[in-house]
Amino acid sequence: MAVDAAPSGRTPAGRLGGRWVPWLVIGLWLVLTVIMAPLSGKLSSVTTDKAADTLPAGAESTKVAVLEDSLPGGNDNTFVFVYHRDSGMTDADRATVERHYDALAEKYPPKVVTPAGEDDEGPETRPSTDGKAMMFTLDVSTTYGEPEAIVGPLRDAAKDRPAGLELDVTGPAAVEGDMDAVFDGIDLQVLLTTIVVVTLLLIITYRSPVLWLIPLVAVGAAALTSMATVYLLVKGFGIVVNDQNSALLTILVFGVGTDYALLLIARYREALHHHENVRVAMIHALRGAAPAIVASAATVVAGLLCLLVADLNSTSGLGPIGAAGILCALVAMLTLFPALLVVLGRRIFWPAIPRFSTAVEEKPGLWVRLGAAISRRRWVATLGSLGVLGVLALGLLGNTGPLREQDQFVSAPESVTGFTVLRQHFPELGGQPMTVFTRPAHQERVLDVVKGVRGVAVAVPGETSGGWADISVFPTDAPDTVAEYDTIKRVRTAVHAVSGAEAIVGGPSAEHLDTEETTSRDEKLVIPLVLVVVLIILGLLLRAVVAPLVLMATVVVSFAAAFGGSVFVFGTVLGFKGIDYSVPLLAFLFLVALGVDYNIFLASRAREEAVRLGTREGMLKALSATGGVITSAGLVLAATFAVLVTLPLVMLIEVGFLVAFGVLLDALLVRSVLVPALTLLIGRRMWWPSRLSRPVEELPDAQRPPADDEEPALRR
User: Fold this and answer.
1) Domains of the chain
2) Segment 565-584, tens digit of pLDDT
3) Prediction pTM value
């Protein structure tokens, strides 16, 4: 019988924490919230998507971007105006183009250049050889604003034109502006959508009119604190936070924080049946749940911090950003959340209030029946699970090629369609312009060399300032294609050979090329490091070697299956034209770190039960005890990542779908069927070399669990 009161009238909770402790914790969090709230609102002010900040740290295109930022006019925004009429340009059309050009050149000095390459002194429009289009290039100084703020007024300024004359404003700055427009307000959209999704799932899970609000309050406090913490990290250490990472921070905190809440509530509800005093029940719940929750958080944090070795600034920045979010969620869910539950008492569970009882009847449920079925058909469960995962992994044979920037939009904006029109009427100007910086004394030599490179359509010398001269180079191939990337590589090889020129090549497509190559190198470094770090944490938690290796193997197989299944959906169902370069690494990190979580919750409980029940009974008991809550946690985490699928950017859709699908695979198949089946097949050797792996007869009587071949209690 559970006794909550000592003879003196004081409870054990009085020694571990009196009635005032929960109120003190809540008060401290209120003070922290008041301090952090203003700072959290400043996070958006330090987010950046500037090329110089997010590109690979040591890449050549990064050096060009930094140099452009430092030179007067070097970082001007380049827009391309493409006028076209299917029946052919008329005299009125040509006059309109000239008028628009003159007006824009006057409104947006200092320079307007065209890729004509013949007349460097004055700007001019360029007709297409088919007579159906005209174009000109406009470089707008950043003093007039960022691309997102400029592209709209530019399009409006060119609305006055004859009927039937179409205009597409495209070019690198227009694409950037349309991309920025997609991210405009994305943090608020993600936050509100996530709150709605988590609220609905909590209401469905607990079927209580009030209980759902408590996890939401605690997770909200964690999210606010994490945003303020990240802001301080940016100001103190110069960490790069872009819009993508800011959105992922919100998803991580809400998803992981809600998972921790579900696990703690499950233990707390169980403890309330055995302890009349709610503080004592919470202490027992924390003792049972906290080690697994802390191990889970440590795994995710360690995995995220592995990103610090990445060379891509936006990737390495996600490491401390995500780690800060996870740690804030951990602290909030192990302090503020328990305090709120204790203060509100049992009534918070109304109408299904857990009553104090020394005899709690355990009714056989779905998870008990599933465990019994797996125990009877271990090989069938193992091979069947691996078969399903293997079939899904076959999707990796599909289109896993890189996604072009123009294909990033779910609905192609004007800047993207404009590139298609430009290539149709000006095939010699198919790609985005490269920027070549060289020392002024060598500009003519570099220009001649560039013009002779295969794949270059036009090379135009630019201004000289700050000890550098720039050259605009227009490739013939479509943007972000293998052919264009090959041209960029040939240009780099050619200009590097000019002694003393110190020439460097950058530009939008060069940035994408460097980013993809850097990401590929980062994957080769980060992925093995994540596997080693997570394996070490599992080993320390489970005090074994075999179990961590088995769990890691299942997670890796699960990732391959999730990736393969997602590739099939992306290509066949959604019609995406490739996989964004950042998706594989991010998805691997999240699925390994988060997927291992569910195995941690199951395996740590199985080890705890194995001490007194034996390996087989311990696993079946752990499955029945954690099955419902881990499934709920998986659904919540999958749903929070699925929020990204609602956004109009292919990259975020791919990350959201892949991680959500992978989490569901881990929660519903790997953790529910494959891991229990493998554990039952391996038996006590699962815990080698700990004492649990030794034969029962070799252990002292006091340490002997039931032998694995004894009749399972759950089946009697």
Assistant:
1) 24-58+185-361 (1.20.1640.10), 77-183 (3.30.70.1440), 366-393+543-716 (1.20.1640), 420-513 (3.30.70.920)
2) 999 999 888 888 888 888 88
3) 0.80
